[in-house]
Automatic annotation (TrEMBL):
<protein>
    <submittedName>
        <fullName>Sulfurtransferase TusA family protein</fullName>
    </submittedName>
</protein>
<dbReference type="InterPro" id="IPR036868">
    <property type="entry name" value="TusA-like_sf"/>
</dbReference>
<feature type="domain" description="UPF0033">
    <location>
        <begin position="33"/>
        <end position="98"/>
    </location>
</feature>
<dbReference type="InterPro" id="IPR001455">
    <property type="entry name" value="TusA-like"/>
</dbReference>
<dbReference type="Pfam" id="PF01206">
    <property type="entry name" value="TusA"/>
</dbReference>
Amino acid sequence: MSELSWDDVVEMPNELDDETAEALLRDATEVQDMTGEVCPYPQVEAKKAIAGLSPGDVLVQKTDHVPSTENVPKAVGDDATAKVWQSGDGRYRIFLRKE
């Protein structure tokens, strides 16, 4: 597989294949496992993490809480660009790139 970039994260959750999602996860600057956590905890943790990253760094949040896929991107606002990946078994990854 060639080197991955932010452009490999797609807008629609089901358009990113599992292999690419795994590679992007390995290349992330920081990973937060929010599996089992509910809002507002994931939003708070995402905002704190984004504040400590450099522009271009990528934070990935793993979650199984569907509302987080909308609430976390809203919480980080203009501080990060967000894209979401959904696995076939109800797990999600929220990719946040610091602006």
